[in-house]
Structure formats: C-alpha cells, structure tokens
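Model it.
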Amino acid sequence: MTHLQATRRGIVVSALFGAGLLVAAPASAQRKEPPPSREAAQFSFAPIVKKAAPAVVNVYVRARVPTFVSPFADDPLFRRFFGERFGMPQERIQNSLGSGVIVSPEGIIVTNTHVVKIGGAAEIRIALSDRREFDAKVVQQDDKSDITVLRIEGGDGRFPYLEFENSDAIEVGDQVLAIGNPFGVGQTVTSGIISALARTEVGNSEAQVFIQTDAAINPGNSGGALVDMAGRVVGINTAIFSRSGGSHGVGFAIPSNIVKLIVDSAVAGRKLERPWLGAKLDAVTREMAEAMGLARVAGAIVAKLYDKSPAAEAGMQAGDVIVAVDGHEVADARAVQYRLTTRGVGNRCRLDIVRKGRQLAVDVVLRAAPQAGKDDVRNLSGVHPFDGARVANILPGTADELGIEDQEGVVILQVRPESRAARIGFQAGDVIQQVGRVKIQTVSELEAVVKERQQVWQIVLKRGNQTMRLQLAG
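Modeled.
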C-alpha cells in the first residue's frame, strides 16, 4: 500500500468510526454522535508540511533594466509593436518576488523563468524557511517550459530538498498541497485536489501541458511546489486563471516529469535536447473530426512532412491524425510535443494515428532537429537598422526552437544590447521578409541588401501573427 493509499484509507476509517456508525443506527443518531476522541475527528496535513516546507524557498530578484524614452511613446500602434524599448536609453531598478524548490542537498533550486528573467544583470537572493539567506546563480534557463535551474552559492551542501514524483502517475481527484510565498506575505500552504490533467492552451509555451489544481495559487506562488500526500513534487506552480489577480481555484503547475528532465540536463552541464518529429501539426477541428470519423475532437493532424525526418522515415503521411503517444491520449500538437520531449532524444516511441478512418500504430525513432550550419547564420553590423542582430535562415529545427511557422524570410536569433537594432526594438523571433523591394529568403540576401546605404529603410517584418511595414530613417 502506498503512503497515499494508506492516508486515504485512514481518512475513511476515521470518518466511519468517528461518527459512531452502526448498521442498525438511524441516520439522525449517526449525525448527532460525537467522535470518541480528538484523534478520530482530526486529520492534518502537518506531517506532510513539515517534510516539504523547509525545501520551498523565497526567490528575490533585483536587476538594473535599460529602458528607452521615445517621442512616439504615446502612439498606441507604436507601443503595441515596440513596447517601451525605443528612444533615449535610461535605467531603472526592477524587483521580482517568487518561490522556488530545492531539489538536491547541494542546493539546486527550481523556479519559473518569468520569476528571474526580468532583464539586465539580475542579483538573485534565496531565503529559506529557517530565515537563512544565500546568493544564487542561474545554471540554466529554459524559456519553452518556463523553468529555470539555480544553484545556491555557499552553504554546507546539506540543504533540505524534495524528490520528484512521476507526474504521469497522479489522477484527477488526488489531494495536493501548494507551498509558496503569495503576495510576499511569507511561506504559505494551501490544499486542494488535482482538477484536471494535460491542460494546454494555458501559457505561451508550445511544448508543455499543465496540471490544473484548485489549491489556492496567488502572485508570488510562481516557482513554488505542488506536492502530493507523500511530500513529493508533482508540479511547479506557474500560473492562475483570474479576473482580479487573486485565486479563483483555477491554478496551473508544470508537470514534474518535464521539470526533472531540465534539472538533470542542467546538472549534467547540457541544455535539454528536444526531439524533432519533422512534421507540421495542426489542431483537429470539429469538422475534421466528423469527416474522419474520430470519436472526439482531439489530436493533432499532420499538415506537412519534412524529407528525411523521423516522421517521414516511420511512414507517416500528411493527413494522419496523432491521437496518442505511448498510450497517452493527446489533445493537440502541444501535447504531442510534450510527450515526445519527456520520452527523450535517442529513444523510440509509439504513435497511435488515424489514417482514412483506420487505426494504426507507428514506431518513431526520436532525434534532435538538424542544426544550422555556419552558412545559415550571420552577425550583422554596419550603418543600417539591423546593426547588432544575429540572424539565421529558417530551417525546420530553427522554426521549432523559436516557435515560429516555417515560412519565407530570415529570423532574428539575438539582438546585442544597446545596439541600433535593440534601440529600434527588434526582438528574437522577428522574421524579416522584405527590405525595400527585395524579398528576403536567405541571410546572404539580407547581408547584401543592408550593405547598400538607404535614406529611408522600408522593412516588412512579421512578429507572431502580426505583419508590420516600417519606414526608418537611414
């Protein structure tokens, strides 16, 4: 019997004997019968909290953030595209407060990337529940999953820590505790249940699903622990659905299985390598489901296959609908990518698909996306708007990594701080599609175009789903 099962059975037994239940007793007598002892009437999460709480920390971040003031700052369209990053450089202090979880005795901490990534050179301070404080350094940031791994500087190497539970083993209805520092009031524990599993369309990440819970999660809880009744981490609290900013019983946590993968990779000194299926996946609509005879509106349809990709080599075809990965049903393309990621590069997985009304299973050998070569990337410099930008051809792997559509153009990978490209407001992920009258398809074409001085630079740029036409002074 697991600890969780034993705990649940204990609840049932206490309720039965505490109420003085007898087979022949009338209902009214059962309701009025007092518990025979305090122990029979009381169930407490205290033992779980005593085990888990010392490993949950407060994360304080302080950074000097460059900002820019522009005469066009009051223009709504300008602000929508460029934000507040264009104009004269200034500097301000930005603070962030969140939570974190120690997951090894050496002081390895997991938190949310949005807690610590506030721009500039951040100073990170960790406060333990016993009031000890330490500096911490970033070991690795994973923007796709919103997970950052920190390491405590100093200390004796014997920190309290929590172990990970298999997040695939939890079920809707399981009891959980959320531990963190909401609103900066200090460490707080709330209880609830698992409300739903494999939620997608919650955050901006295209490579994860979420655990939903009704345990109260509020601002400041980000990066804190969602633990089961054995005191193990099943998720890292990350988001809430709220109209007021407070908890409405709809909170979301990143499953522990993906968190553990990132931690293991960070400790080993490498970035998490995500598998590349080599297929463009779209959502299944109700019309598609009816036309294909699907039992439900779920899964991911293969819209396009790349040559020599794992999907193509496995015999998949455009129009196939992926409905499960290794026996786990998938709701959409995000869920497919999550399952592939947790399976890992170098392993084999089974995809259950529907093809022309027939159920099939294919085995796919997972590998990483092909990397860009030296001819696919350029660092641009000179008297032009893209000075300080690192750009690349849009290869399938690059598109997957940045979460952009495979399309014509050249993508910006990085922008050097305080460069002209940074002052204009270009960002990683922006796709340059046209400069003047030249349609840009490769980095070589862009490099050639910017060598020609222009009095006015006319640029067509795509950011997300928005296409912008810019005119910038030469």
